[in-house]
UniProtKB/TrEMBL annotation:
SUPFAM superfamilies: MOP-like, P-loop containing nucleoside triphosphate hydrolases. Its EC number is 7.6.2.9. The lineage of its organism: Bacteria, Bacillati, Actinomycetota, Actinomycetes, Micromonosporales. Residues 4-236 form the ABC transporter domain. GO terms for molecular function: ABC-type ferric iron transporter activity; ABC-type quaternary ammonium compound transporting activity; ATP binding; ATP hydrolysis activity. It holds the Pfam family TOBE_2. PANTHER family: SPERMIDINE/PUTRESCINE IMPORT ATP-BINDING PROTEIN POTA, SPERMIDINE_PUTRESCINE IMPORT ATP-BINDING PROTEIN POTA. PROSITE patterns: ABC_TRANSPORTER_1, ABC_TRANSPORTER_2. This is ABC-type quaternary amine transporter. SMART domains: AAA. Keywords: ATP-binding, Cell membrane, Ion transport, Iron, Iron transport, Membrane, Nucleotide-binding, Transport. GO terms for cellular component: ATP-binding cassette (ABC) transporter complex. The keyword rRNA-binding does not apply. It comes from Planosporangium mesophilum. The gene is fbpC. It comes from the Bacteria.
């Protein structure tokens, strides 16, 4: 069942078009991440869903109820939407218990049952209830903000880059705890983010926006392995894009003969190869010339668990980037041979 249906939504601010013909379906009890760079329209879309603004055209429906469209506009307080802003926006003069239960009927606030349930849901101890926002860490504040959004059991929870202000160590743990809490509550959630790792690791569906348009909406693995176009490929994760020629399920390119995904159009193409697909076989002297393509190691960026390696294809080929295990990092200046694992996505060079 579809919890949220957006059809041909447009929005402009003066001469600037923020959204152009956006279509998106969000299944019930699912987690959708709207992913895109700054200025692509993703926050505007979230505001239209929440009811903070009205679209210029198109419709927005929650289930079978239209909340925005020609002659229809349901105000935000009647949409049963939970909203988690970037900074949490907790009331500084209220303790955690009062913040969480702020939108509940007086009887529900007095009983304390819903408060206890929500604290457990977002994995905060009962002792946190009497603390004030300034006494909490950034991650705890975001969990309280989520608990407050979930308290009245909204039909949809909207999250506007809620982890962007957290440091890297806190961000991942908080994001995962929030995602788990949303799934445990059987909530339908829409997250706006510019962080590709966040979108791919948390969401059931990733909706990629560019210049006010929705260019692809699919499961994370589909968006990563089969992006809609080269621009999506370059934005969603690291990408090696090479020109090539597709014939009979194989493409010839600077990295040799590479298998392509089924259905690839024959002829000139742009090939997408992810850095983790590029395998460094061994030093050039240790591997027969028939195996792999010769390259020289350039810059190596070491991250502990893995490393990225810039490689200049020889004798005069392009530069490519490989991702390797941190324990198998070649030395700068070393000559190696390369091979490609798996299949490449192929985009027709003429754009059709």
């Amino acid at each position: 069942m579809t919890a949220l249906a957006i059809r041909q939504v447009t929005k402009s601010f003066g001469p600037v078009s923020a959204l152009t013909g956006v279509d998106l379906d969000v299944p019930a009890q699912s987690f959708t991440a709207v992913l895109g760079p700054s200025g692509c329209g993703k926050t505007t879309l979230l505001r239209l869903i929440a009811g903070f603004a009205a679209p210029d055209g198109g419709t927005i429906a929650f289930g079978d109820q239209q909340v925005a469209g020609p002659g229809v506009f349901v105000p935000p307080q009647r949409r049963q939407v939970g909203y988690v802003p970037q900074e949490g926006a907790l009331f500084p003069h209220l303790d955690v218990a009062a913040n969480i239960t702020f939108g509940l009927p007086r009887a529900a606030r007095r009983s304390g049952e819903r408060l206890a349930e929500l604290l457990d849901l977002v994995e905060l101890g009962r002792d946190v209830a009497t603390r004030y926002p300034h006494e909490l860490s950034g991650g705890q504040q975001q969990r309280v903000a989520l608990a407050r959004a979930l308290a009245p059991k909204p039909s949809i929870v909207l999250l506007d880059e809620p982890f962007s202000s957290l440091d890297a160590a806190l961000r991942l743990g908080t994001a995962r705890a929030v995602a788990q809490a949303l799934r445990a509550a059987n909530a339908t959630a829409v997250l706006v983010t510019h962080d590709q790792d966040e979108a791919l690791s948390l969401a059931d569906q990733v909706a990629v926006m560019r210049s006010g348009r929705l260019v692809q909406a699919a499961a994370p693995d589909v968006v990563y392995a089969s992006p809609a176009d080269p621009a999506v490929a370059a934005f969603v994760g690291a990408a090696v894009l090479l020109p090539g020629t597709v014939r009979g399920g194989t493409a010839d390119c600077a990295l040799g003969a590479v298998a392509v995904a089924p259905g690839a159009v024959e002829g000139a193409a742009h090939l997408l190869i992810r850095p983790e697909q590029i395998r460094i076989l061994a030093g050039s002297d240790a591997v027969p010339a028939a195996e792999g393509v010769l390259a020289r190691v350039g810059e190596v960026a070491y991250f502990g668990h893995d490393a990225t390696v810039r490689l200049q294809l020889e004798p005069s080929g392009p530069e490519v980037v490989a991702r390797v295990m941190g324990t198998r990092t070649p030395a700068a200046g070393e000559r190696v041979r390369l091979a490609v694992d798996g299949v490449a996505a192929a985009f027709p060079a003429n754009g059709h």
